[in-house]
Amino acid sequence: MSVIRSTVTGCGSYLPEKVLTNNDLAKMVDTSDEWIVQRTGIQQRHVAAEGEVTSDLALEAAKRALSAAGRDAQDIDTIILATATPDNTFPATAVTVQARLGIHHGAAFDVHAVCSGFVYALTTADAYIRAGLSRRCLVIGAETFSRILDWTDRTTCVLFGDGAGAVVVEAAEADGSNADRGILTSHLRSDGRHKEKLFVDGGPSATQTVGHLRMEGREVFKHAVGMITDVIEDAYNATGYTSEDLDWFIPHQANKRIIDASAKKLGIAPEKVVTTVQLHGNTSAASIPLALDTAVKDGRVKKNDLLMLEAMGGGFTWGSVLLRW
Ligand code: UT7
Predict the structure, then answer these.
(1) pTM for the complete prediction?
(2) Whose Cα sits closest to atom 22 in ligand 1?
(3) Quick check: CB of 146 below 6 Å from ligand 1?
């Protein structure tokens, strides 16, 4: 049977120039390189320069993804940008990126699912493409979390960083079998009962301020592995695949301990796990495309490889996307 599949035809990423190491942070709050590495695996994070905003990061990642896909900006009809740190309350940062790419047709909008944002945006793009609403979609995850951190709170400020990643997703005719290239299945979940465990204590309607990120880290950690494994098992149930069939596990990069524990629980071999959290910390919606781009550029991910993407974050929100490269 002939079906439309959403295939990823190129990816790109961007990290701001300025690097903040664990030792730099130890001069700002009561922490140490040893504690941060041991508890999270993070060695450094990138921080946007003064005046550098989320759309700047997103634009650079988008240009690199378009170039990798061999596409011109004018080929794109939809831009879906995942962020929890937009340039402005409105317009959507996606619309700013659209204008800066010189695109005046089609539609652009933001998706807000915090650390799960990229998985939500990619799933939305897949639904648009399969419904015939889009032929070529630019999906971006971009964040400047440095702007919503409380730099006096050592329990949160050591964990996050700024960055962006993007993919070009295109409609392609396929057989409708698991051997097809493209997105094979995706599973999204959310549960607002967990709001207080990870949130920002400000917003236009509530406080008329931007606010700062607040997190009960231990509580988030407690839920993370179970939620991640649940949505991955949903993908296995939908396709008949198991961990053995995966070529690469490309998880949200929040904490190496969460990544390792999830892989272990699912029986995914450590050599199949793509981990970049040590280089950029938790970049929220940008973390999956940053890790994906790293593994594509260094030659690990090859055509027809089976990739499992997953994320979990504020809300709580969580989700998985299984795709063939
Ligand atoms: O994208 C999704 C969003 N977030 C996450 O995925 C994060 C999930 N949570 C985590 O990654 C971990 O819970 C953390 C890395 C945040 C913390 O690790 P933990 O092993 O859960 O540590 P903890 O919160 O239980 O804290 C242990 C100790 C505490 O001291 P006491 O109470 O034992 O005396 C903290 O006060 O470590 C202390 N601590 C620190 N010490 C040095 C907390 N932050 C720091 C710090 N440096 N930066």
Answers:
(1) 0.98
(2) 218
(3) no
